Amino acid sequence: MNWQEVCEHPNLRNLPFKIELTETGQILMSPVKVSHSAYQGEMIRTFPKTGKVLAECAIATRLGTKVADVAWVSQQRFKRLKHETECSIAPEICIEVCSAGNTKAEIEQTRTLYFEQGALEVWVCDQMGEIQFYNINGILEKSRLFPKFPQRIEL
């Protein structure tokens, strides 16, 4: 399957899970807890009113379609992406909210894939709301694009 087929498949439209695709078209589904959704919502609400904030943002990568829990994209990049089924280039910021089942290796691989697709920063929110900010060179003390963004999300 490709991402267009997943989006159009009638049996997959209303699943309560995050869906991603592997490089071979295999569907991966990950159930999420309420706190996971709450962290996503709080981050979306906290972003400044510049650019576009995207929830569950599908991004084409060399290992299939990955879905960032939250992403921020500039107006300029959004003009290129807004009619795509999945982003051909990553938004400038891609955010992963970790679940209990995520491994460190999985998160590192996802971070690498987002950077390969043009992300400028990748943020990783742990299960306690602590956010680590990364650019392609490694961990940052704070976001360079949004230095006032909190390092912890309270629920």
Secondary structure layout plus pairing:
Elements: H1 3-8, E1 17-21, E2 27-31, H2 34-46, E3 52-61, E4 64-73, H3 75-81, E5 93-97, H4 104-116, E6 121-125, E7 131-135, E8 138-140
Parallel strand pairs: 5-6
Antiparallel strand pairs: 1-2, 3-4, 4-5, 6-7, 7-8
Features:
155 residues, alpha+beta, tt1808, chain A, 6-stranded mixed sheet, globular
3D architecture notes:
By secondary structure, this protein is an alpha+beta fold. It has one domain: tt1808, chain A (Alpha-Beta Complex), CATH 3.90.1570. It has helices at 3-8, 34-46, 75-81, 104-116, and strands at residues 17-21, 27-31, 52-61, 64-73, 93-97, 121-125, 131-135, 138-140. The strands form two sheets. Strands 3-4-5-6-7-8 form a six-stranded mixed beta sheet, sandwiched between helices. Strands 1-2 form a two-stranded antiparallel sheet. The chain is globular and about 40 Å long. It starts with a helix and ends in a 15-residue tail after the last strand. 30% of the residues are buried. The mean pLDDT is 89.
